[in-house]
């Protein structure tokens, strides 16, 4: 089941933080990063974030989270994480499909590391295409992907 998460609630922010830590440790290892910026984000920063969080729960356990913003008809996926104990169950796809279905937008964007092939393949499966590459100051080469949402957006 997918529900909107109340990140202003300290306990919920802590749950989000825990999933982020578990998932981003796996991603950091995958991409070969010792100092992975998402791992430095605190539960308090999550609590004070103005982004929206949606969570996928299985048997009342939070298993995956998608973090988004909507601005000028653009859906921006800030993060998509699944607890490693729930990998390979289609949860990330369910979260992407859910927000694309419920959010009134004409376009969606996401960024990930160039070497994060599993994430790139996941987004490609959902119709995202690469449109930009760059090297941020933290030294992990990134790419941006977007997809045009079909149908009316007004």
From TrEMBL:
Domain N-acetyltransferase: residue ranges: 3-152
Keyword Protein biosynthesis assigned: no
InterPro entries in the cross-refs: Acyl_CoA_acyltransferase, GNAT_dom
Keywords: Transferase
Highest taxon of source: Bacteria
GO molecular function: acyltransferase activity, transferring groups other than amino-acyl groups
Name of the protein described by the UniProt record: N-acetyltransferase
């Amino acid at each position: 089941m997918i529900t909107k998460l109340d990140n202003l609630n300290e306990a919920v922010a802590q749950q989000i933080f825990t999933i982020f830590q578990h998932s981003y440790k796996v991603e950091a290892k995958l991409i070969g990063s010792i100092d992975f910026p998402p791992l430095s984000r605190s539960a308090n920063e999550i609590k004070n974030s103005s982004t929206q969080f949606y969570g996928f729960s299985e048997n009342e356990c939070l298993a995956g989270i998608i973090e988004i913003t909507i601005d000028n008809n653009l859906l921006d996926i800030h993060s998509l994480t699944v607890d490693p104990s729930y990998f390979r169950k289609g949860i990330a796809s369910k979260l992407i499909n859910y927000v694309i279905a419920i959010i009134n937008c004409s376009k969606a964007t996401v960024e990930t590391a160039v070497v994060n092939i599993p994430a790139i393949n996941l987004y490609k499966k959902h119709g995202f295409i690469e449109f930009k590459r760059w090297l941020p100051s933290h030294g992990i080469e990134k790419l941006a992907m977007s997809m045009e949402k079909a149908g009316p957006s007004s």
